[in-house]
Each structure stands twice: as structure tokens, then as C-alpha cells.
Design goal:
Elements: H1 10-20, H2 34-44, H3 48-52, E1 61-65, H4 71-78, E2 82-87, H5 90-102, E3 109-111, E4 124-130, H6 139-149, E5 150-159, H7 166-170
Parallel strand pairs: 1-2, 1-4, 2-3, 4-5
């Protein structure tokens, strides 16, 4: 017997949630208020810079999974990384593009699913994802994909939130 209450397509639900309310927009006074977003992000989570090691990424191929509004992605570009950024949300990608363009930096941003990354094996020196992969219906698959595209000897810098946690409570 067919299920009378089919489960909604979780990927669609996740995509639509982030398209309607990209992460961090609550800290912005306007759609283009990227400075307020960055100030709030790095004030609430001051350890991001130490975790990411933006400053030691010059010349490295970096993949950021889940760029959101692009605050961290911009830091990769400013540090001289050859950065590619992906997000499931088209709204987030568009805002991250505008952020990079406002900063005068060339970007490589694209809509992509962390469960099925559109890159060859062993493509990146660093794979970075901060507070993103646990939002996927298949988090384990996201981790496998991140490791698949990571070069041998490369570094994966991935943070997921734990509930309950101090950051979870703040958010």
C-alpha cells in the first residue's frame, strides 16, 4: 500500500528554505549590507579565521561548500586562494556574487549540491565548509564527496554544529 502522506523532497525543502532566508541576512540592514553581515559573523564566531587559515591559502585551490552570503568566500579570495564556491541556494550564490563584485574580486561561484559535487577527484588542496553539511538530507554523502574532490595530502576543514551547543543557542 502506498504511503498516504508522502515525504516531501527534503532537498527541495532545504533549497527553498535557504533561498527564502539566506544564512546571515538577519544581520543585514539591506540586501547589499555585506559589511554588517561580516562584522556580525566574525563577532559571533571569532574563531572562524583561525579555523579556516585564510591567510595561508595563497595559490591554493580551495573549494568552499555552502558559501551562503559569501563572507568566508571573500576572505579566501582576499588571501589569494584560487577559490571555488558552491551552494544549493541560487539566492545565496547571487548575493555572494554581488559581494565579490562590490569588492572588485573575480569569483568562481556556482549552484551545486554537496551530495554530488561537479568536480573531478583530487581537484582541491583545501575543502572548507562551515556549518553547512549537517543541513543536507545525507550528511555522510556530503563528507564522502568532500573527501573525493580533496587532493591526496590536502586539508578538509569542515565544521558542523552540535545540538545543544553554544553557537546553536546563539543562533
Amino acid at each position: 500500500m502506498a504511503n498516504p502522506h508522502p515525504t516531501p523532497d527534503l532537498k527541495h525543502v532545504v533549497r527553498e528554505f535557504w533561498n527564502s532566508d539566506p544564512c546571515g541576512t538577519r544581520y543585514m540592514e539591506s540586501v547589499e549590507d555585506f559589511d554588517s553581515h561580516a562584522r556580525a559573523r566574525y563577532s559571533l564566531e571569532p574563531y572562524i579565521h583561525e579555523f579556516a587559515h585564510f591567510s595561508s591559502s595563497r595559490g591554493l585551490r580551495v573549494l568552499e561548500i555552502g558559501v551562503g552570503l559569501g563572507a568566508d568566500y571573500l576572505e579566501w579570495l582576499k588571501a589569494g586562494a584560487l577559490a571555488t564556491g558552491v551552494d544549493l541556494s541560487s539566492t545565496s550564490i547571487e548575493r555572494a556574487r554581488r559581494r565579490c563584485e562590490a569588492a572588485g574580486l573575480k569569483h568562481d561561484l556556482q549552484i551545486a549540491d554537496a551530495e554530488s559535487l561537479p568536480f573531478s577527484d583530487n581537484s582541491f588542496d583545501v575543502v572548507y565548509s562551515y556549518g553547512v553539511l549537517h543541513h543536507s538530507p545525507d550528511t555522510a554523502r556530503c563528507f564522502r564527496e568532500a573527501l573525493r574532490v580533496l587532493k591526496a595530502g590536502g586539508t578538509a576543514r569542515i565544521m558542523i554544529y552540535h545540538h545543544p551547543s553554544l553557537t546553536g543557542l546563539m543562533l
